[in-house]
Amino acid sequence: MNIYDIAKRAGVSIATVSRVLNHSPNVSQKTRERVEAVMKESNYTPNVFARGLGLNSMKMIGVLCTDVSDIFYAQAVSIIENNLRREGYHAILCCTGSEMKSKKKSIELLLSKRVDAIILVGSAFQEQFDHSHIEAAAKKVPVIIINGLIELPNTYCILCDEYKAVFQTVSSMLSGGCRKILYLYDTQTYSGMKKLMGYQDACGAFGIPYEQQIIQKVPKNLESVTQIVLESRDEEGRFPFDGVMASEDLLAIGALKALKGKKIPVVGINNSVLAECSTPTLSSIDNMLLSLCTTSVQILSQIFEDYTVPQKISYNAKLIERESFHPGEVNSPVLTPD
Amino acid sequence: MNIYDIAKRAGVSIATVSRVLNHSPNVSQKTRERVEAVMKESNYTPNVFARGLGLNSMKMIGVLCTDVSDIFYAQAVSIIENNLRREGYHAILCCTGSEMKSKKKSIELLLSKRVDAIILVGSAFQEQFDHSHIEAAAKKVPVIIINGLIELPNTYCILCDEYKAVFQTVSSMLSGGCRKILYLYDTQTYSGMKKLMGYQDACGAFGIPYEQQIIQKVPKNLESVTQIVLESRDEEGRFPFDGVMASEDLLAIGALKALKGKKIPVVGINNSVLAECSTPTLSSIDNMLLSLCTTSVQILSQIFEDYTVPQKISYNAKLIERESFHPGEVNSPVLTPD
DNA sequence: TCTGGATATGTAAGTGCTTACAAATCATTA
DNA sequence: TAATGATTTGTAAGCACTTACATATCCAGA
Fold first, then answer.
1. Residue B50, CB, less than 7 Å from strand C?
2. Which nt has its C1' nearest the CA of A22?
3. B162-287: what fold?
4. What residues form DSSP beta bridges with B189?
């Protein structure tokens, strides 16, 4: 069942059928209806491969994601996929971990599938230095980067100002009386770097010297974090910090578990389901994932429609207050469960 | 840059180039090397659309997932994607919610993209009754169903025996002294049905009449669950149950929050990260997602290689013990945090 | 009724690959 | 050295569509 069959049955040429298929305006109402009727009754589906050949597009977007099993990225991918589908596109998913090599390879794979664009979710830190693969990709298709900043032609960055949010949150912890805030992080993404800077600058602004900033890299694993935090205690069992800021909810919860019952404020980032699950519930910086992802797809459609679009869009993040930290309340405590 | 250019530069015919591309054995070593060299230095990428036209495949697999933002399905998709990529396939993701209509539409979309197979993750209950869409899909491509059972030609089900696991877990709660176990669930998937049956049969086996089984449907939302559980208390603030089994970790944690400090065992299902995040940590039935998903891709490759494969494979689930329930310990308590 | 321009349709040449079949080359043996 | 069969290569016909260009049809206005 191909375009010839339809043409024959409808008594028209294949060009006309093709025009109907592509919603060309140069088809009379009558003909269009007849052809469409024949298509329906013949249960005809155009062959995407042939169409792809002719149009050089299959309306597919490559979504490159560090790790969908990460609840945060999963949400991003979910939003992106839904929006893409609404626009008539399909998402090819590639979860390639944070290794540069496999990322590069995945981009090549996606390009070899002739995707119409690539969306990067959770781009890693190294891209700051070696973005040759992104540059190469951007020469062929538009590249949208979510929460990462790489300024290149045909590259569009949708960001959330996590720097500011962390700066403000840490500042309010400091003005609430904290002096030594532990900063936990795991991978070095662009966004990760900004968050860390927010912490450092806030400390700086409050006159906390670098030596007294406690910055700790930890694995992204609950138990490990708890373990590491517990081990940081001195001989008398005291923690060497009086506040915790973590680059991710999971890490914050790891700390929370170690601090069980202690009056030490803890804040995470991402505002994921995890934040609600912990006891006490975790205050967390919401980085507007929904907006970022929705916008990314909007930008994409606009690019396809040849509109001029900004190459950089930034949203504000905001702190969602829960039990583990209320700005304003001096030494807002971790609740001691009854 | 196409196959003609390469043929010209390598001084061979396009057929030979195509043979090299497809790893045909009918090419002499010498020629192959020459062609490959030319391809590399010309930076040639074969056009997938044209290949698709010729081979009628683009090596793409449709992955239909109820909701990737659900941490459990996200993990499944992640594992599947990784395995597919290892086998040289790409995943087209479709997260279509649990509505029948959008599922059907998504399957049509995937088929119109001429995917080589479809993998279903998180298939909903209705499929038990109306699986016309799956049947239609299976007529064109193999359909793999993860944790669902629909016995049709060209349909392959990879299951986990959650029935047994729930039966055993509930049994051990009952033999530990529980009499009235609350069962929480949200959506009605095949797997959900089996779990519920496990609960009911265990109750039956222990002589708990149906009227005393407390089965509660709740929304998949932490606060709502907590709320609902709290509201179930009688005037004196007592809960009408002495144990909780939930069809998902999130629901279990919702209950856990309501039961803060109470000595009531709680068990979830899925063994997700959430289970570790809660306080107390949640005992949960691990439904072997990794095995299910890995197997699904294996089965697929075997089908493509024309091996005969079983249409139904079942794994055993197992309870992962954490603080919220230890079988054997009578009335194993929810730990009261110090 | 005729004419001109607008609108609708058809023809044919791509698009870049696969593959059956034919032809050429090669190695082997009598 | 010629004949034989195996191996390698080339030719040409698909695969199912798009689209520039040519042609046919339509309708309004003269």
1. yes
2. D18
3. Rossmann fold (3.40.50)
4. B124
